[in-house]
Amino acid sequence: MSLAEKLSSLPTGPGCYLHKDAHGTVIYVGKAKNLRHRVRSYFQSSRHHDPKTQALVAHIADVEFIVTDTEVEALVLESNLIKQYKPRYNVLLKDDKQYPHLKLTLNEPFPRVIKTRRVLNDGALYHGPYLPASLAHQTLRLVNQMFQLRTCDIEIDGKRDRPCLEYHIKRCLGPCVRELCGPAEYAEAVRDVKLFFEGKNKQLVAELQARMERAAEELRFEQAARYRDQLRLIERLGETQKMMLKDAADVDIFGYHRDGARLALQLFTMREGRIIGRREFFWEDLPPGDDFDPAAFLGEALTQYYALGNYVPHEVHAPHDFADRDVLEAFLSARRSAKVRILTPQRGQKRELIELVERNARVAFDQRFRTLKPDMADVLDELTDLLALPRFPARIECFDISHIQGAEAVASLVVFENGQPAKDEYRKFRIKTATGGDDFAAMREVVGRRYARLLREEKHLPDLVIVDGGKGQLSAAAQALRELDLEALPLASIAKREELIFVKGRESDPLRLERHSPLLHLIQAIRDEAHRFAVTFHRQRRTLRDFDSELLAIPGIGPKLKNRLLRNLGSLENIRRASIAELTPFVGVQRARAIWQHFHPETPAADA
């Protein structure tokens, strides 16, 4: 069917539609209460479209559709199709990385808590995500200490003779030994973990308090002490939480900050009136200026977020209302089996919380787009001030040495111009005079060779020279420059382990930059590029050495025949795999048999 025929035969019910380009690639996925009206609206020339929609329509060559029974089903299907096809014109919700969750394996007879980066629809309870990722490990250790669920993956039948060490150090209830912990007691601990993950600390504290008092009355003092310790730990956790709403509610609060085509979306998760976590999402290719529709953006982002299977709160607070709010409310209410409201607070404490989330979104935006990707001219200006350079460091050259116990020693030179690598200017050096793995002598040699040549050819010198290493490498490079009367050339080094920066003339007072400093990131990038280039060259040299030694060890094979084999067969691996017949044209039958037998010592040459 042609596109016009498809448009005329569209159904009038709810569903999803997929726009495709001339190559058959899905470029947009949408949902509709009435497929015919919605899809045909794209092709009505009298209808006003924003620039993004105009660009989309210009690329549509085909349309497919999927009919659903309800608009809520279309909402869920749309999210799944967007994740599957990742269309160019849809808002795609994604993190920088897959943050870890803690998983309570309710689908097992004796559940345990494990760390995972995959959220599946498998009947387990997931808690997270944890930002930073190390927080997942800390929380897991806390849960094991507090609730003592098992950490092993063995089959639990209660028939073991004795428990493992985890029981003795009070990190497991010991369900593998029936006399230590029965199914009912273990199920109680699992329920406590579930309440803890769901943020229902008030209910958990009340139950633990009652159990502690009951255990004390029944003279089960050891168990009462365990409940007491759990209570203290939960109370101590609660003391660190200060951000609260008056009504104890489970709320997700969204806010964002946008500048041009870039946007940071922030989510605060509030459980029982307390902010217990947050999550960040970033975009770099949104429509700029007036072409950006915040309501449409929030609608798509929230739909995708909750379609992932995340916990559904009582309320969702968003900075703007959006078109499909009632549909998303119906979907979330069905998921939670209770009424869920999506609100857009305009005043009061709820609005203040949205503004707080938006301030955090701005901080996240600045950290990602302005601090992590700063203006390079500003960074180089800072470098000029830090090292007291006589001029702006438009050209920086960096050296590194690579060898294994002195063998096949090589050096690399990388060049950065205005903070960007100039790969055409990179140079490789084979160490000629330094021996025995003497890094200082090797550095003195290559620095001397490099700038002696620039002086002979009357080429421009760099604005700054950096060497990989500490004070020893810096001193060796300084000696080479001094022998060439280039003492005025700015010189510095960066030590790998401590990340200290040594500057010529100030060796006793090294610089230590803050680890998130863009300037440190630039210096590290230059150093790491020099290291990568040196290691790559060293591997090439080592490969050639191994190639030479293996082929030349075969009787009758000298340098000329080795070069002929390499020229015609391309690599040592190809020579290794070649048959006698394939080798014969280049070395003759007898040498071909010798080569083949060398690589296949256990197989008779007659079988080649």
Summarize the structure.
This protein is of the alpha+beta class and 608 residues long. It has 20 helices and 18 strands.
Walkthrough of the structure:
It is found in: Cytoplasm. This protein is an alpha+beta fold and 608 residues long. It folds into 5 domains: 83 residues, GIY-YIG endonuclease; 139 residues, no CATH class; 121 residues, 2-Layer Sandwich (Nucleotidyltransferase, domain 5), CATH 3.30.420; 162 residues, 2-Layer Sandwich (Nucleotidyltransferase, domain 5); 55 residues, DNA polymerase, domain 1 (Orthogonal Bundle). It contains 20 helices and 18 strands. Helix 8 runs antiparallel to helix 9. The longest helix has 35 residues. It starts with a helix and ends in a 9-residue tail after the last helix. About 1% of the residues have low confidence.
